[in-house]
Design brief:
Length: 172
């Protein structure tokens, strides 16, 4: 919890490159936002000892999913970010070495992860198998929709309102 603000700052400062730059924000709480990724979470962070600033983050989450028709534990590796001044060092490999040790708890045998299309640097690095990185298999594309709430909808009906959800919007 003490590093929550630093993690959120890092996420704001490290959008994913590609034809559409995406920034996955976890506001107002990074740790609470992890609940959608599973029932168990471990977050790794890199902290610059000279500035006490968070420069890297990565998450391991576990949830129950159906694998070959049977409920089983499934791991999800997400939110892998390293601030630009720290890229090109061995921090990514060191993070994955720590993840490998955490994996020894036996909570799952399989992990999923996603790389946004167009983020070629991440794809090439994470699928290279070099520097102690795990073996990654490309299982193809996953399509999802994104809606920009900052852009105005042209010619939208006057009766249409777009706003952030509020607590009272959730059915009792």
């Amino acid at each position: 919890p003490d590093d929550d603000a630093g993690i959120r700052l890092l996420l704001r400062q490290t959008p994913m490159p590609g034809p559409i730059r995406l920034t996955y924000l976890r506001e107002p709480s990074f740790l609470q936002a992890l609940s959608v990724e599973g029932r168990f979470h471990q977050t790794l962070i890199g902290i610059d000892s000279s500035t006490n600033q968070v420069f890297g983050v990565g998450c391991r989450s576990i949830k129950t999913a159906f694998i070959n028709g049977q409920p089983a534990s499934l791991g999800y590796i997400s939110t892998v970010r390293i601030a630009p001044p720290y890229q090109g060092h061995n921090y990514l490999a060191r993070g994955y070495q720590l993840l490998r040790k955490l994996h020894d708890d036996g909570r799952t045998k399989l992990y999923l992860g996603a790389i946004v299309e167009g983020n070629e640097r991440a794809r090439l690095r994470l699928t290279s198998g070099r520097g102690g990185l795990p073996t990654v298999h490309d299982f193809g594309r996953y399509h999802c929709l994104a809606i920009s709430l900052k852009q105005r909808v042209k010619d939208a009906p006057v009766c249409l309102t777009i706003r952030s959800a509020r607590a009272e919007d959730v059915p009792g």
